[in-house]
Amino acid sequence: MNQEVRNLGTPLDLEWVESAVVNRSAVERRAATLPGRRTVKKAHQAAWLLRAIQCIDLTTLSGDDSPSNVHRLCVKAMNPVRKDLLESLGVGHIQTGAVCVYHQYVADCVRHLSGSGIPVAAVSTGFPAGLSPFAQRLAEIKASVEDGANEIDIVITRSHVLRSDWKALFDEMKAFREACGEAHVKAILATGELGTLTNVARASLVCMMAGADFIKTSTGKEPINATLPFALVMTRMIREYHAQTGHQIGFKPAGGIRTAKQSLDYLILMREELGPDWQKPHLFRIGASTLLSDIERQLEHFVTGRYSALNRHAIG
After folding, report:
1. Residue 82 belongs to domain with CATH number
2. Is 314 helix (H, G, I), strand (E, B) or coil?
3. For labelling alongside 42, which of 163, 188, 189, 315 has CA 20 to 30 A away?
4. Interval 49-61: pLDDT, tens
5. Chain-centre distance of CA 55, in angstroms?
6. Of 185, 243, 194, 246, which Cα lies nearest the Cα of 216?
């Protein structure tokens, strides 16, 4: 992640936070237009899919993770598309935006990715529920940073949002940001558990005020994860925060994004709501584990005119 100037945060402005009110019907209408109203075809689609690959946080967060499958994930992150397909597309080497793992595998990823320039992201702070003792959550962040994590994906305490205790959320986020040091911090809102779109908007603002470098929809473990309405609300808050402070905050949808078409929907949303800067890895990431395989299938179809079986593609 290479933002030139990190988000410095601002004092907590409760008047600003409480003025954020979302019209759910309007958001849902607007989000519903995105998949059908805008599209990219043929060579343009291939180019956009290559960009989507560069924005993927290639992720494994399973209970059966092991050193071997984490190693495979790192190899895939460094070589996400077969060389023959890239040559047919006239494209040089590309790689994913990051690799995202539990703390236990941070050091392994740092070793496997050495020299590649691919950041290692660690989920932290009692992921996915975020209900570990506070001191333990801070210690977890510091341990991952010490092991070499460049990015920390933290989870907020949802009850702060549900009780509208914005100062508690602000103080928590500031402490997480400080514990991250030079590592960039992505604040996971767990949008599907926040009750209302207005809560999503207000939580987004508070986390940005407290210094989050990215705001992220979900852990991927909730019943409802990334959706276009959630993404629309969060990107509108990013736009508002940028207009007020000049700081560009990144956005990461995560959970349930499995198809190439979905990745294009989010890229279109970023371009329409925030502009082309937010279609690049330093400001846009997609948290995914299986998405890469479908994108590679679509690229093969563009090159050969035939769809391949999903099981022909390496872990992604």
Report:
1. 3.20.20.70
2. coil
3. 315
4. 999 999 999 999 9
5. 9
6. 185
Cα–Cα distance between 89 and 300 in angstroms, integer?
10
- Whole-number pLDDT of residue 4: 58
Is 9 inside any structural domain?
A: no
d(CA 26, CA 305): 39
HSE of 116 in the Cβ direction (CA atoms, 13 Å)? 23
Residue 119 or residue 306, greater confidence: 119
Q: Domain range spanning residue 165?
A: 14-312
Burial code (b: 16+ CB inside 10 Å, e: under 16) for 100-131 equals: bbbbebbebbbebbeeeebbbbbbbbbbbebe
Is 238 within the bounds of a domain? yes
Ranges 33-37, 138-142, 162-166, 307-311: which has the least confidence: 307-311
Residues 293, 313 contacting (CB under 8 angstroms): yes
| Alpha-carbon torsion angle 176, 180, 182, 188, nearest 10 | -70
Residue with tokens 């309007």: 26
**Per-residue pLDDT at 92 exceeds 80:** yes
**Residue 104 structure tokens:** 């236990």
What pLDDT does 271 receive?
Answer: 95
Report pLDDT digits (tens) over 166-203. Answer: 999 999 999 999 999 999 999 999 999 999 999 999 99
How many domains is the chain partitioned into structurally?
1
H or E segment to which residue 164 belongs: none
Q: Is residue 4 part of a domain?
A: no
In a domain, 294, yes or no: yes
Tokens linked to 187? 């604040």
Please, what is the Cα angle at 290 between 189 and 284, to 5 degrees? 45
Alpha helices (runs of H) in the chain, residue ranges in sequence order = 14-19, 24-37, 42-54, 67-78, 83-89, 106-112, 134-146, 158-162, 166-180, 197-209, 228-245, 260-273, 291-304
Task: Tell me which residues are annotated as active site.
Answer: 153, 216, 252
